[in-house]
Amino acid sequence: MARVTRPDVSAQDRTELVNANNRFAFDLYHALREKEDGNLFYSPFSVSLALAMTWAGAWGETEQQMAEILHFTLPQDRLHPAFNALDLELARRGQEARGRDGKGFRLHIVNALWGQEGYQFLPEFLETLARHYDAGLRLLDFAGNPEAARGVINDWVNEQTEGRIRDLLPPGAIDTLTRLVLTNAIYFNAAWDRPFDPKATRDGAFYLLDGSQVTVPMMRRTASSGFVVGGRVPDGGIAVRRQRTGNGHPSPGRGPV
Q: Are strands 227-233 and 236-241 parallel, antiparallel or unpaired?
């Protein structure tokens, strides 16, 4: 079954899903920050997208609890088309852009479901994955050869991320009792809209989390830029720069999706 490339989604449903993703993004940030002392880089949208795929197969208490954690307020029949619309919009935005290597812009959100051969999955679940996520269920023999199955998954992720993620699943992550695996990875390659001149680099003080400082090369640029400040983020205010589009007009500022 082919993916729906022009989903009929209302502006209200798009906004409702974006707001849900924003709330989940901050929840996830706080959870990850408690476990990570260093730099933190993650994609809330790709995580939410992947879990939405599994939510399509959930029901009862599991469905309700997942919706609460992910802040899903739309019903199943409206949420999945809305995710499809957002994902397609992200892909369209990069069609004319270039990557850092001179090739085309690449944003690969690598989500996939891997199921046990012979295990019965509901046709309605598989249809939702195909129509709204362009993802089929890939079958492997976890019960007969879990390590071989792990290798197949890792090789696929490695190819999709152009060698950046080579061992997503560590040894022992798959065993003979595994019936379903969800993989989530993201690869992004794009050039700066306004490249920085390396000649403008200057050494400066960078402050670490423990309060100490180190001297590192800093990018420097003098420019005028409009911004707005709000105070709705739990940890304080947030500054949003008004980015210009290619025709010189300001583009609307939005939160994380």
A: antiparallel
The domain limits of the chain are 11-189, 198-241
With CA atoms as reference, report the closest residue to 42 among 184, 162, 231, 154: 184
CATH number for the domain whose boundaries are 11-189: 3.30.497.10
Q: How many C-beta atoms lie closer than 10 Å to residue 118's C-beta?
A: 8
pLDDT per residue as tens digits for the range 60-74: 999 999 999 999 999
Segment 32-86, tens digit of pLDDT: 988 877 778 888 999 999 999 999 999 999 999 999 999 999 999 999 999 999 9
Residues 174 and 150: beta-carbon distance below 8 Å: yes
Q: What count of other Cβ atoms lies within 10 Å of the Cβ of residue 193?
A: 10
Burial readout 196-227 (b: 16 or more C-beta within 10 A, e: otherwise): eeeeeeeeeeeeeeeeeeeeeeeeeeeeeeee
Long-range contacts of 207-215 (CB under 8 A, 24+ apart): 209/37, 209/38
Please state, in angstroms and rounded to a whole number, the distance separating the CA atoms of residues 18 and 90. Answer: 13
Q: Taking the model in full, what pTM does it have?
A: 0.74
Angle CA(136)–CA(168)–CA(118) in degrees, nearest 5? 40
Do the beta carbons of residue 194 and residue 210 sit within 8 Å? no
Q: What are phi and psi of 198, to 5 degrees?
A: -55, -25
Residue 235 pLDDT greater than 80, yes or no: no
